[in-house]
Design goal:
The protein is of the alpha+beta class. The chain contains 3 helices and 8 strands; from the N terminus they run E-E-H-H-E-E-E-E-E-E-H. It has 2 domains: 98 residues, Roll (PH-domain like); 51 residues, no CATH class. The strands form 2 sheets. Strands 1-2-3-4-5 form a 5-stranded antiparallel beta sheet, covered by helices on one side. The chain starts with a strand and ends with a helix.
């Protein structure tokens, strides 16, 4: 998902597509938790008590997997283009990696895949250094982003 803001500088916010928000994940988890424990409790009342600890373990694993996926999808990239500079910030949970360069020397290059079926690779190259951009996007979105970034840098 690409969000574009224009003001003092041009800003592209790149995020992966999330299927559910954090609130949606919690609602989904609690509905499954409730259904699972109603079924497990009814089996326990019928004498099959061993199902309760396994239902609890299943819910712990489901909650952990939902949390892991949400944290993994909360990363983003921010590309800022002003009159003189281009900067790319990669934000992953608590880590932030920044790559900056002069607009004159910045080149956004869309590399074609070597093998059919693989995605394109978009990089910002300047003064012998490069940083990949848009790894969170689909291939069509990455191609669209490359066109937008090239257009804004050439202006």
């Amino acid at each position: 998902m690409i969000q574009y803001k224009e003001g003092e500088f041009k800003e592209f916010i790149i995020k992966p597509n999330n299927s559910l928000s954090w609130k949606g994940n919690k609602i989904f988890f609690f509905i499954l938790f409730f259904v699972s424990f109603v079924i497990a409790f009814s089996f326990a009342m019928a004498g099959m008590w061993l199902i309760l600890p396994f239902a609890g373990l299943e819910m712990i694993l489901l909650g952990s997997a939902l949390t892991f996926c949400y944290i993994k999808n909360s990363q983003c990239e921010i590309v800022k283009i002003d009159e003189k500079n281009v900067s790319v910030s990669l934000i992953k949970s608590r880590n932030k990696k920044v790559f900056g360069c002069r607009k004159y020397w910045a080149k956004f290059i869309l590399n074609k895949p070597r093998l059919k079926g693989y995605p394109h690779k978009l990089v910002l190259r300047s003064a012998g250094r490069e940083m990949e951009i848009g790894a969170l996007l689909t291939d069509e979105e990455r191609i669209k982003l490359a066109g937008m970034l090239k257009k804004n840098v050439e202006q």
